[in-house]
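The protein record passed on for reference:
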Amino acid sequence: MEHTYSNPQASPAATPCNIFFRIPKTASFTLRNLVSREYRKVPCLDTDFPLLSPESWQHFLKCVELLPEEKRAQYRSIVGHMKFGVHEILPGSARYVTFLRDPVKRFASYYYMLRRIGLVIPTHRFEPTRPDWNMPGHESFPRELDNCQTRALANADLNLPFGQCTEKHLEQAKANIEKHFVFVGLTERFDLSLMLIRRLCGWRWHFYVPKNATPQFTTEQRLCPDVLEAIGRLNRFDRELYSFAAQRFEETVRQQGLSLKIEHAGFISCNLLHKKFHRIYRPLKRAIRGDSKVRKRTPSTKTPTKTADSPSAE
């Protein structure tokens, strides 16, 4: 989805295009909302994929390549689920930003999301002793379960078979981070990551409420410890990539010094007030408008709860 605006302060010739590389369930939906707010007055391109597939990606590339070069040069931001390499079809300079998350927590959140929306049946059970792990038929499962973050940053084929992610993919992912990424944030440290994006990319202050958070499930509905342990072993490249990104993250934090810590503390306090105001204001606004979606909530022990303080459940 394309959003085009004018901004007299923007200098397309001097400003690189910031490519916000969304990886599923890394707080990427919250990031997308923040990107749309930051770049609301400049040309911005949203890949807008509900599901990234080889067909949808090729269609997107063709559409962008057909645009006149001067129009492609105007984009100051591209955001969405994508394959690495979109910078190659842009005439000007570009830099990437992404978030990584603990691979076991990331996949568990993805799995619970698919169960919530009905793409995984309630009685499904993984079987790590089987070659296919008894995966559901959803086409994204092989890459989501098998080192998804390494695959994405290494620009691996979307149809790379399950179990075929290798050490070469890990090394390529690291090399791409070193060469093309101005910043790699950590979902578990989302607020501090936002403060670093603000400094490295020149963002304004943006407060937020977590979006697309996965609800909590009962003990019976959760993945069992043995399956979670097997997922951790399978995702050894993602774990190493996460550790690599975390080391770079800590070094960036160290370089920013005490002023970043003060700014971070101030942001946490202000954003907490923002969240409280949002919880009060949103239902009040709907009630004033007579929104038909506003209904009295009946007590129920089955109502799922969402994490309130960070977008890490996305």
Notes: Residues 23 and 81 are 6 Å apart (CA to CA).
